[in-house]
Write a structure and sequence with these properties.
With about 80 residues, this protein is mostly helical. It has helices at about 15-25, 40-50, 65-80.
């Protein structure tokens, strides 16, 4: 499910992302919440609320590092 590094296929990170990574690197030690970064999850909720899906809550949203991670999380939640 995972092809690894997308850069060889022309998928380079935008410059503004690289600048943000460099700026935040000194304070980026450790792990974030396993559901994903709160502000990113909140942005997802706001996006869908603008589209009329009002029942969505931040606690309903999981943001992962690629689809492989999210598939594993979903399978761990559903399978015994």
């Amino acid at each position: 499910l995972n092809i690894g590094n997308p850069a060889p296929f022309g998928f380079d990170a935008p410059d503004e992302i690289l600048v943000d990574v460099i700026r935040n690197l000194p304070t980026s030690q450790g792990y974030c919440d396993s559901k994903g970064i709160y502000s990113a999850r909140k942005a997802v909720v706001q996006h869908y609320q603008r589209k009329g899906i009002r029942s969505l809550d931040v606690e309903d949203v999981y943001v992962g590092n690629g689809v492989s991670e999210l598939i594993v999380m979903a399978m761990q939640a559903l399978l015994n």
